Amino acid sequence: MSEDRPQLYLLTPPSFDLEVFPQLLARVLGAQEVACIRLGLATKDEDKVMRAADAVRQIAHEFDVALVIENHIALVERHGLDGVHLTDGARTVRYARKELGTEAIVGSFCGASQHDGMSAGEAGADYICFGPVGETGLGTGTRADRDLFQWWSEVIEVPVVAEGALTEALVRDFAPVTDFFAVGEEIWTTEDPVAALGRLVAAMG
């Protein structure tokens, strides 16, 4: 992987079958170099989340890939995870850092808000996610535009992640201005996630 090419940040599907998904994840990790995985489940069932965390951690760590969990700060140490991904901008960053210590990864999703991104970075976030960069009817529909990433990559040292409704064209366009691409549903909803991810990686140039 070229040094100046963005790295891959893999998002799990919001729900998955523990009998099937770990093997599929292993195939994807075997095919492409991935820097980090985010476990982001839609369920609030603690048992399901904990079992998924253990299953995904096992595969992630086999491939020497960091695993962060969405929002569940209390599960990070208990399940041997590498950190947490917060979805509330800068609000919980300081608390998470205090709870998890300096070694843990603390990431923050900041929508399309430059202000939230800067606040989260100042509070100690290791990376900032902006998105969606693509067209989606979900959320507020506000897209994080290329100018935000361009400005961020020129001015701020905290790594930035582009996510949300990615296409090959968007990956090609954003590759020069982002450190990571967060890829999830873009590949898991296809017939062949390994091939779909390969196409997105090829688009990075």
From TrEMBL:
InterPro entries: Aldolase_TIM, ThiamineP_synth_sf, ThiamineP_synth_TenI. Residues 8-173 form the Thiamine phosphate synthase/TenI domain. GO terms for cellular component: cytoplasm. It comes from the Bacteria. Transmembrane segments: none annotated. GO terms for biological process: thiamine biosynthetic process. Pathway: Cofactor biosynthesis; thiamine diphosphate biosynthesis. Keywords: Thiamine biosynthesis. GO terms for molecular function: thiamine-phosphate diphosphorylase activity. This is Thiamine-phosphate pyrophosphorylase. It comes from Rhodobacter viridis.
